[in-house]
Specification:
single chain; mainly alpha; 57% helix; globular
Length: 317
């Protein structure tokens, strides 16, 4: 009797183990247990539509298997988000030096473009030249120098790095379909008589701040930042900053430590803002101009959502 009970107990334990193993195998990667990402990171998008789902704001997008999970897995950030958060852009550059995906090529180029002053000069020399240009007499000199040193902390290690052909890097990323790099080609498209406005409209639908920022030179030349009726459009500087405020609503870094605010402080002496919106509201603009800026930002956002491209100066064919 005791031997029979012992055998039954062993059989029951084995059955429990078999069921548990089957459950774990059935809920693995690719079978409802979350999205699968290999060690090299997310694959390059094959189209702008795919970029919209995987790159826009660093989120997987609605319907993604990995959008929400009760597991303790740590979500992998997008390369764009890694670039924005990088405390040292040279370390980011070196990490992805041999990554040939178009987004990696693009963001390596962006890191170099942001830090180009430091490729030929060490950080202390960049800061010495800044002080020698008469900046020391500026009432905000200390704040401006502090902003420059914040930039140096991210860029200073680029000194004497081998400088690649940035234009070729961006052209390569564009040729392989990476949207921010494509945005950089629109001026050439316009000069060649191609339908650059339709491409701009397509890119704006991605709601990607990196894409919108790369479109700003195109808007500066193509529309001169006009909105709707040119007679009712605020001056171009206000509309340009309205675009910057719009980027904040779709995921751009608009914090006190953002490169945009660091540059505004270093170059213009507009220092002390905790956010881009505070810069515009409390430091850069009068109350009436700030109201114009907010109205322009709302018009930009509404026009993109409604696909009313003519309201932002575009005329897609």
């Amino acid at each position: 009797m005791k031997t029979r009970l012992k055998r039954l107990a062993i059989a029951s334990a084995l059955l429990v183990l078999i069921v548990a193993a089957a459950f774990l195998l059935g809920s693995g990667p690719g079978k409802g247990g979350g999205s699968t990402v290999d060690d090299s990171g997310r694959a390059a998008p094959s189209s702008i539509a795919e970029h919209s789902a995987t790159h826009g704001n660093g989120d997987p997008g609605p319907g993604s298997q990995g959008a929400s999970t009760a597991s303790a897995q740590v979500a992998r950030v997008s390369l764009a988000e890694e670039f924005r958060m990088a405390p040292n852009l040279r370390a980011f550059y070196d990490k992805h030096l041999h990554d040939n995906r178009p987004e990696a090529v693009y963001f390596r180029g962006r890191a170099l473009a942001l830090c180009v002053d430091y490729v030929t000069s060490p950080a202390h020399e960049v800061e010495r030249r800044f002080s020698a240009l008469g900046s020391v007499d500026h009432p905000k000199f200390r704040e401006r120098l502090q902003a420059l040193r914040a930039i140096s902390s991210k860029c200073g290690d680029f000194f004497q790095v081998a400088m690649p052909d940035l234009a070729r890097m961006f052209a390569d990323a564009a040729a392989r379909g990476f949207p921010p790099a494509i945005a950089m080609t629109l001026l050439d498209m316009m000069r060649n008589g191609q339908d650059s406005d339709s491409k701009a409209a397509e890119l704006l639908q991605l709601d990607d701040p990196e894409v919108v920022e790369r479109l700003m030179p195109y808007f500066a030349l193509r529309t001169r930042f006009a909105l709707g009726d040119p007679n009712l459009t605020p001056r171009s500087a206000i509309v340009q900053d309205a675009w910057q405020l719009y980027m904040c609503t779709i995921g751009a870094d608009c914090s006190a430590t953002s490169r945009f605010l660091m540059d505004q402080c270093r170059s213009e002496g507009l220092c002390g803002a905790a956010s881009v919106e505070q810069l515009f509201q409390a430091i850069k603009y009068s109350p009436s101009d700030f109201q114009d800026l907010v109205r322009a930002q709302v018009m930009i956002q509404d026009s993109i959502q409604r696909r009313d491209w003519r309201a932002i100066g575009l005329s897609p064919r």
